[in-house]
Amino acid sequence: MSRSKKNPSPEEVDAARRDPRLRRAMDVGRRDPEWRLRGRCLSVDPETFFPEPQLKETPNAALALCSGCGVQAACLAWALDAGDRNGVWGGTTPRERQVMLVAWRDTVAAA
Ligand code: SF4
After folding, report:
1. Counting beta carbons within 10 angstroms of the beta carbon of residue 47, is it exposed (0 to 12), middle (13 to 18) or buried (19 or more)?
2. What is the DSSP string of 57-98?
3. 66 assigned binding-site residue
């Protein structure tokens, strides 16, 4: 089983709870339904956000775009709500979101 398939450890989840990306997403939540219209990725090839590790592609280009995106928090909130594990969303990799999802479901989704 690959590392990305392992269940997150309690230590990983604790670290995710302190991650500023997750905290901002929890603050924004569902309050910005129009976020997709303002994403920096609107004019970028979507494949950029779905790198293929088997082809030695990395998420770095997508993460760089997300880092300057004004709707990163709303995008991440959407991905966590959707439970989306593929590609880069809201400045996070699938593995990062897998860990964040545990904290997300404990707080936002349970509210
Ligand atoms: S955070 Fe990244 S994936 Fe989300 S809208 Fe912005 S550029 Fe696109």
Report:
1. exposed
2. --SHHHHHHHHT-TTHHHHHHHHHHHT--SS-BTTB-HHHHH
3. yes
Domain locations along the chain: 3-106
Mutate to test the pocket of ligand 1, among 50, 60, 65 (most ligand atoms within 8 A of CB): 65
pLDDT at 5: 65
Q: One-letter amino acid identity for 20?
A: P
Each residue of 54-110: pLDDT tens digit? 999 999 999 999 999 999 999 999 999 999 889 999 999 999 999 999 999 988 766
Q: Is 69 annotated as a binding residue?
A: yes
